[in-house]
């Protein structure tokens, strides 16, 4: 249970800081002249991962992402039952964080949450979906593949980066966001997409819910490929 709670807390922090940065930059909570760039949002996600990696990494491994958990499970590093528990608590953490963001934005800017969540925290791909599903799917698939491959490689017990794994993973996530934000808003993490989508629908805009399948299927598929590729690269025969 400690591992599950750690994953919930870690995913909560990732969603709150990463999605929160995007939301607050978009509306400024009623202030003037406030905003951060795409680079700022990318670093908000990456720094959240780095912070949590060195906080809960020794407890749960700091997956805080169902795609990573899927990759770790398929790689044979954890049991299926434990992987399912991780995913459930990751989604719970993301939902709680989204509730906090919803509260802060809804009370500060009445009526503004729907557009914010739809544009910046769930898909960010209104111009792509549903008319251009393929480019969005390919982007989420490829960038998740790259990210999870970095995770599997840097955390490998024999070939990994040791104490620097958390830093490498966080910076990899920054890089992924820099490249992918203009395409889909960047998910590469089903939990971090599910939470905000729910609250967008509560606000009255259920478009993100109708699009959420892509941000679940594509990252999971990318993670599965990463697991297969890393198993091949790390094998003694290779």
CATH class, named Mainly Alpha
From the coordinates shown, what is the CATH architecture?
Up-down Bundle
Low-confidence stretches: 28-33, 110-128
Helical percentage: over 70%
Average pLDDT rating? 84
Order of helices and strands: HHHHHHHHHH
CATH superfamily: Glycerol uptake facilitator protein
Spatial shape: globular
- What is the gyration radius calculated from CA atoms? 17 Å
Proportion in β-strands: under 5%
The number of distinct β-strands equals: 0
Report on the biggest sheet.
none
Characterise this structure.
The protein has a single domain, classed as Glycerol uptake facilitator protein (Up-down Bundle), CATH 1.20.1080.10. The chain is mainly α and 238 residues long. It is 75% helix and 0% strand. Helix 1 packs parallel to helix 4 (80-108), helix 3 crosses helix 6 (133-154) and helix 6 packs parallel to helix 10. The chain has helices at residues 2-27, 38-60, 66-74, 80-108, 113-122, 133-154, 165-184, 190-203, 207-211, 214-234.
Give the tags.
globular, 75% helix, 238 residues, single chain
Please describe the topology of this protein.
Layout: H1 2-27, H2 38-60, H3 66-74, H4 80-108, H5 113-122, H6 133-154, H7 165-184, H8 190-203, H9 207-211, H10 214-234
How would you summarize this macromolecular structure in one to three sentences?
By secondary structure, this protein is mainly alpha-helical. The chain has helices spanning 2-27, 38-60, 66-74, 80-108, 113-122, 133-154, 165-184, 190-203, 207-211, 214-234.
């Amino acid at each position: 249970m400690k591992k599950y709670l750690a994953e919930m807390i870690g995913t909560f922090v990732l969603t709150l800081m990463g999605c929160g940065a995007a939301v607050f930059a978009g509306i400024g909570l009623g202030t003037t002249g406030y905003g951060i760039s795409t680079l700022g949002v990318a670093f908000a996600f990456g720094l959240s991962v780095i912070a949590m990696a060195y906080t809960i990494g020794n407890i749960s491994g700091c997956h805080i992402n169902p795609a990573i958990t899927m990759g770790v499970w398929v790689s044979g590093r954890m049991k299926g039952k434990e992987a399912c528990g991780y995913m459930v608590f990751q989604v719970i953490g993301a939902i709680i964080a989204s509730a906090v963001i919803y509260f802060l934005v809804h009370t500060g800017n009445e009526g503004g949450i729907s557009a914010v969540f739809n544009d910046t925290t769930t898909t960010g791909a209104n111009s792509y979906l549903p008319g251009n599903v393929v480019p969005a799917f390919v982007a989420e698939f490829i960038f998740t593949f790259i990210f999870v491959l970095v995770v599997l490689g840097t955390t490998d017990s024999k070939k990994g980066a040791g104490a620097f794994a958390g830093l490498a993973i966080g910076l990899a996530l920054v890089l992924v966001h820099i490249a992918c934000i203009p395409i889909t808003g960047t998910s590469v993490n089903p939990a971090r997409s599910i939470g905000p989508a729910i609250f967008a629908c509560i606000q009255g805009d259920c478009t993100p819910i109708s699009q959420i399948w892509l941000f679940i299927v594509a990252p999971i598929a990318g993670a599965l490929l990463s697991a297969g590729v890393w198993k091949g690269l790390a094998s003694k025969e290779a």
